[in-house]
Input
Amino acid sequence: MRLLTHNMLSSNIKGVMNGFPLRLEVEKSVSKEVEFNSDFLRNMFPKIEWKALVDAARSMGYAELPEEAPESSMLESEEFLMKFHHALLELHLEEGALICPETGRRFPVNKGIPNMLLHEDEV
Amino acid sequence: MAAAAPRVGTEALQKGIAELYDESSGIWEDIWGDHMHHGFYDPDVQSSISDHRNAQIRMIEETLRFGGVSEDPVKRPMTIVDVGCGIGGSSRYLARKYGAKCQGITLSPVQAQRAHSLALDCGLADRVSFQVADALNQPFPDEQFDLVWSMESGEHMPDKTKFVSELARVAAPGASIIIVTWCHRDLSPGEDSLLPEEKDLLNKICDAYYLPTWCSTADYVNLLQSHSLQDIKTADWSEYVAPFWPAVIRSALTWKGLTSLLRSGWKTIKGALAMPWMIEGYQKNLIKFAIITCRKPELIG
Output
């Protein structure tokens, strides 16, 4: 699971007021090279919750992203785009879990695929 | 709504659906490829298997056209959700077509893994991702997606109200919502429900395909209206999909089809045996292949 995906997942357990972002529990992570596409990155940037991405990247061991959400002028900086690209697309959570920030409920991630199914008492 | 109540509990239904697709997706893909939906055909044209794969692509394109989804670089969808994504055929196609990011959800872990492998194989895994999740409780925050796509998954939803409510919730302002699904005929004024023999036929199909309940196109329209969605359009495409089930039956009766079925499992075989009932349902104008599209209002100001 890439952090691009993580940035769009939330816990919708009944009664949870804010299930985003999910915390990461990392058992196995890998970094896989992905072709750099600056247009795609610039298109995605407005849709990214920046703090969620920074925190998730840090839990995967990558702390190079700026804490503060960058100004859009930073999108012209190749150096910034490379870091954004790496965090968003090249870091993978292969095994572990996503944790609901309110309830602590674990959603397992196996072979890179999160299982977000809720139990009957959670809907 | 005149739909029957779901006949099995939700977790049992989810398990049944997941197992059906865990068991049968491989065979389907082997013979039919990565799109697990009807093809769109010109009426009265004979088609070979490769024509059928093209017809499945055409189904996607006709659907997008009917739904008015723009290809304009400024207005095209950038984030897409594929609700009931199968092995990701639509997800990959849409992501490629629009240069967009797409997330697919399915109840079947086998499908999710296969969808992911196929995305890796064609170099789309950076933009297309799959999760095991429930369409009735989509694991996304509100208003995430510019295009909300449900291609032949609505049939599996036990609670159409919740299904539509989730589609509306995850749609961004200005997004297109597209539902292509099997419905039963609209009820006439004064009709409370389908005729008993009609219900019997649908029930047999329900059992085979883990369909909990059927509703009509009009029921979907009412649900979409209740969410103040705009530009609601519907069509009955039954005549454009008529060659599909006979083609699937023919493919099942080939040597490859039969041997694969025998090796598969009882759920898949039961599904195969139910295919003539689908044809009967269409011929009796009971089953409709419906498309329902709409738009979430833009933000004002």
Summary: The longest strand of chain A covers residues 23-31. Chain A has a mean pLDDT of 94. The first helix of chain A runs from residue 3 to 6.
